[in-house]
Amino acid sequence: MITPKSGAEGDVVIEATDKDGNVYTYTLKIKQGTNVLVDVETHTINEGESVKITAEGDDFELEAIDGQAGYNPDNWEIQRNGREWTIVNKENGAATFNLYKKDANSEEGRILVGVYTVIAKPKAAPTFKPAEIERTIFDRNTLDITPGKVGDTPNKVEVTKGGENVTVVMEDGKYRVLPKPGFEGDVVLTETAQGQTVVTYTIHVVPSSVEEIEKPAKAGSDVTFTGMKDGQELRITQGEDLVDTANSNLEKGQIKFVPGASGLVVIENLNSRGLPLQKFTFDVSPVDPVESTVELNGNSAARIGLPSGLTYEIDGPDLVDIVRDGNELVITPKDDAKGTTTVLVKDERGNVLYRYILNVDGTNKPAKNSTVKETYTISTDGSYKVVRRNDNPLKVTEGSEWVNIDERDASGSLPRRVRSPLARRLSSSSSVATSSSAAML
Length: 441
Fold this sequence. Notes:
By secondary structure, this protein is mainly β. It contains one helix and 35 strands. The strands form ten sheets. A seven-stranded mixed β-sheet has the order 5-8-9-3-11-16-15, with no helix packed on it. A four-stranded mixed β-sheet has the order 10-18-17-14, with no helix packed on it. A hairpin with a 2-residue loop joins strand 15 and strand 16 (174-179).
């Protein structure tokens, strides 16, 4: 029994000599593999007949195996027509052909996807030497064997060695060989036609391990798994509540974490047998909060957004009054309050999304019945908001020709607004930062 050394890659050439002095040469190509399914078929024909092999695309290649025992290239001809190959036999014998698919991710630029053994029975002598096929697979992989036919009767495949370490099922005309995970050793199967052995399959099963990968991730971010092969799928085994399943696509290898998520998410990459090949552990942490500094002096007020589902709290001295106005918070200084405090806005998980640092000075509010004069500069596409309280009167005493006034009561949730009529004429120009000011009466 020949098994690859751990981590080995390369070619191994073996020569065997029988009692008659005939030399048989075998070349074993050792390489790292994952979940590559190899279709194995055996076709029994009469001398001079042919077999057709059809691929699923144009990027495939069919070749005879070099150095196979008893193979005479003069007895076989390969004809290609698009995605179809015709293997023509000229004289009885057996030959094995490999079908490769081009794969830029493979070290050799292609991967083995099919092995086809053609047995041409002689016209005169009904006896011939059975073909012998050896394959090495991982204990988590699957080997498909498509039996040949004699007429309309398919050949029979049976396990003759190691049956307790493998499961063989018949699906869609193929025998699927599934080694038990953790098993290491040989399994032998024989294919018979009309009671005669035509092919012996020796399967060398080697152990494989689950690749474990740990990565940090931010809440609300997207993760895409590249390099997934046909038949593989993703499964969330821990932290499913931290995954935005509505906006994720496991079949395409796309995962999105919910905003504010914090904790571990474990995702397994499964092969066609549902066994894990890779295990990804993501340490998901919330996004750092957005921080802003606001100056609150005298009668000034600050408005901050507070959409539905978010909450707020004051972290610091009680220096401000806060009133909720729809999806906004209106923040004003308390009389004679002075200092610094902080308003935190949190999501439903309690994660801080926004941190507003308020520098408060409520000591310079104007006295009652006094006249306050302030000057503000706004651009032609900006606005100036004035929120009236207690129906205090408001009028434009100068420059009314330069502004438009839009006034609504409290139920309209839109304050009295003074807006430049030039803004409409400038709306088609390139985008600029919007300027606005506000005061409270």
